[in-house]
Amino acid sequence: MARVYISAVMPVTLEQAWSVLRDFNGLPDYHPFFARSYIEDGKPADQIGCVRHFHDHDGNAIREELLSLSDRDHLCCYRILEAPALPVRHYISEMRLKPVTTTNECFGEWWAEFEVDDVHYEDVMQRVSDTFRLAFEGVTERLS
């Protein structure tokens, strides 16, 4: 099982970061990889079990299911249902935010575990790492 873990301290408050990251349909608003997104069947973006269907700028589609979302714990967990351009299996990911109380900043951590064939390992590890890193950077930029 492969594992990617990225963490960052963002120069924004926990509440500010969470207001952006809790939106399961909001990736294109702050992430440079993604062009458009919608929640299937018109469900709310914070409803457990909803499926986001999004596309990158090359037109590749990804479908992910929201497994948990906690405003109390500031965490979101989801799994990939389909990602033809990302050769992974059994992909589960979680993003969590915590306050940095001494500076009023926000600590974010994002991880994923999945299976990937050796031939794709390095590429997939880099792409997933970049996705998480750029998400935190995008939130910071959007809120600046």
Explain the layout of strands and helices.
Layout: E1 2-10, H1 14-21, H2 27-30, E2 34-39, E3 51-56, E4 61-70, E5 75-82, E6 89-100, E7 105-115, H3 121-143
Antiparallel strand pairs: 1-7, 2-3, 3-4, 4-5, 5-6, 6-7
Could you explain the architecture of this structure?
The chain is an alpha+beta fold. The protein has one domain (2-143): START domain (Alpha-D-Glucose-1,6-Bisphosphate, Chain A, domain 4, 2-Layer Sandwich), CATH 3.30.530.20. 24% of the residues lie in helices and 43% in strands. It has 3 helices and 7 strands, in the order βααββββββα. The chain has helices at residues 14-21, 27-30, 121-143, and strands spanning 2-10, 34-39, 51-56, 61-70, 75-82, 89-100, 105-115. Strands 1-7-6-5-4-3-2 form a 7-stranded antiparallel beta sheet. Strand 4 (61-70) and strand 5 (75-82) form a beta hairpin. The radius of gyration is 15 Å and the shape is globular. The relative contact order is 0.24. The model has no long low-confidence stretch (mean pLDDT 97). InterPro entries: Polyketide_cyclase/dehydratase (IPR019587), START-like_dom_sf (IPR023393). This is Polyketide cyclase / dehydrase and lipid transport.
Structural key phrases:
Alpha-D-Glucose-1,6-Bisphosphate, Chain A, domain 4; alpha+beta; 24% helix; single chain; 144 residues
